[in-house]
Amino acid sequence: MKKKFSFLTIAIFIFFINSLMTFSERVINNLGQLEERNGKTYIRGEKEAFTGTLNVYRDGNWLFSEVPFKNGLRDGVQKVYHKNGVLKVEMTLKDERPIGDILIYDEKGKLIGKERY
Q1: Which InterPro entries match (predicted)?
Q2: Helix, strand, or coil here: 77?
Q3: Which of 41, 45, 75, 107 is the most buried (most CB within 10 A)?
Q4: Are strands 62-70 and 34-37 parallel, antiparallel or unpaired?
């Protein structure tokens, strides 16, 4: 009985954590779904500032960039890709400002540049 209870408790806990993560961070694949108000980014029609990731696609089919947001501001590791899907630029942002290194890669994934902020 104790084993069953422990397994059930763990399963419920995992489900609860997954639910929280699903509701707290969202992935948006259409820039048109977002709008800026008072210096922060929002999903159109919503009152809470956007927290999640904006995926920007070019020509409707290839991932150009991944932009993380926290409380309506770009915050986290932003990535830009070459058309072949290889990472082109990687930079960390905190409250819209670059911090640390900006890494630049060629179309084969070789590091070709690095700039410190």
Answers
A1: MORN_2 (IPR011652)
A2: strand
A3: 41
A4: unpaired
Distance (Å, rounded) from C-alpha 75 to C-alpha 92?
7
pTM greater than 0.70: yes
Distances (CA, A) of 18 to 8, 23, 48, 74, 104: 15, 9, 20, 23, 34
Strand partners for 115: 102
Query: In this structure, what token pair is assigned to residue 41?
Result: 């980014």
Which tokens in the block code for residue 7? Answer: 């397994």
Tokens representing residue 82 in the block: 């070459």
Which of 1-5, 50-54, 105-109 bottoms out in mean pLDDT, i.e. has the lowest? 1-5
Q: Is 53:25 a contact under the CB 8 Å cutoff?
A: yes
